[in-house]
Amino acid sequence: MLDDIDFANARVYAIPMTTRFRGITVREGVLFEGPAGWAEFCPFDDYDDQVSASWLATAVEQCTIGWPTAVRDKIPINCTVPAVGPERAHEIARTSGCATAKIKVADHPDSLAEDLARVEAVRDALGANGHVRVDANGVWDVETAVKHIALLDKAAGGLEYVEQPCKTIEELAEVRRQVNPLIAADESIRRADDPMRVAVAGAADVAVIKCTPLGGVRRAMRIAEAAGLPCAVSSALETSVGLGAQLALAGALPHLDFACGLGTLSLLKGDTVGVEASLRPVEGSLPVPTAPLAVDLEAWESVRHTDPERTTWWLDRLDRVRSVLATTPELLTR
Ligand SMILES: O=C(O)CCC(=O)C1=CC=C[C@@H](O)[C@@H]1C(=O)O
Ligand SMILES: [Mg+2]
């Protein structure tokens, strides 16, 4: 399977971000082509080769066999509001066309006042019928989570859910017993040693599923089934080539009860496909692609990495992770 991919012509990109998100200001990754089309490999810098092997498995699935058949053709999208000031947060939510917003909170210590102002602004922008969720990326302890969630819930006029308030599953379960809003698990699934076996039922009400770090659309579907919870699909900040797989997952899940965090191209100042094909939500939704999106070579030229050292770093990384994947065949078992 790996031998069918044109790794020799892999193309490295670097795209500045509109706002710092997850501590990064430039998104980088590699694109390559296989018999079924193009794919993207873009694990964050801090992920080691073993962890990155699942990201490569997703790309290999995409460009060698494509995706399973979808059961829906359109996916409702949430807008993603980074840790910005209230005016900017209001503008992002108001102009997104989305009825649901996911807001980053707990971005730094003592962020509570800023978090409350951001959440209030977004509720104002969406109106009473909108859905407001927050993501704390696991940084609170139980006591802080319980206190902050109550205040944020009030400021939001009701939160749809709180994503990963604390780090461990035990803490999530404890918080869940003490607060009103639903609890969603993200890192608890995605960063688990064995996502297939992680027992989130009882600790969370919603599973956030991202096929890019979980080893592919088919594998993510099995993980969603094992989690036994309603799902929201969310991005890993891919360009349109990689986002296509996430949309294929959202399209193929038997049940999809929540808007999905796949509107993240708005955080990137460029893309790897042409403007027409770019997966930017229109009126709050995105279509499910039936086949991998093709890289537009002109678009790629405008975002190709210009730093030779970083380009080599990415190509070396791809080489190493290919070797890891070649010796971890279970990751390629569909
Ligand atoms: O879910 C969304 O609205 C956007 C995606 C998103 O929030 C994330 C993408 C990539 C890395 C993560 O830190 C982050 C998340 O925590 O969910
Ligand atoms: Mg999250």
Determine the N-to-C terminus distance.
12 Å
Estimate the strand proportion: 15-25%
- Write down the CATH topology of the largest domain: TIM Barrel
- Number of E-state strands: 12
- Architecture per CATH nomenclature, i.e. the level-2 architecture of the largest domain: Alpha-Beta Barrel
Helix content: 25-40%
Overall pLDDT metric: 96
Strand order of the largest sheet: 5-6-7-8-9-10-11
Oligomeric form: single chain
Label the structural class.
Answer: alpha/beta
Number of helices: 11
Unreliable sequence segments: none
CA radius of gyration? 19 Å
Give a verbal description of the structure.
The structure is a single chain. It is built from 11 helices and 12 strands. It has 334 residues and is of the alpha/beta class. The two termini are 12 Å apart. A 7-stranded parallel β-sheet has the order 5-6-7-8-9-10-11. It has a 3-stranded antiparallel β-sheet with strand order 1-2-3. Helix 2 runs parallel beside helix 3, helix 4 packs across helix 5 (169-178) and helix 8 crosses helix 9. It has 2 domains: 2-67 and 295-332, Enolase-like, domain 1 (2-Layer Sandwich); 74-287, TIM Barrel, CATH 3.20.20. The mean pLDDT is 96. The protein is globular, with a radius of gyration of 19 Å. The chain has helices at 49-64, 86-96, 112-126, 142-155, 169-178, 187-190, 211-214, 217-227, 240-252, 297-303, 308-326; strands spanning 11-21, 24-34, 37-41, 74-76, 78-81, 100-104, 131-135, 161-163, 182-185, 206-209, 231-233, 285-287. The structure holds ligand 164 and magnesium ion (MG).
Short précis:
This protein is an alpha/beta fold and 334 residues long. The protein has helices at 49-64, 86-96, 112-126, 142-155, 169-178, 187-190, 211-214, 217-227, 240-252, 297-303, 308-326; strands at residues 11-21, 24-34, 37-41, 74-76, 78-81, 100-104, 131-135, 161-163, 182-185, 206-209, 231-233, 285-287.
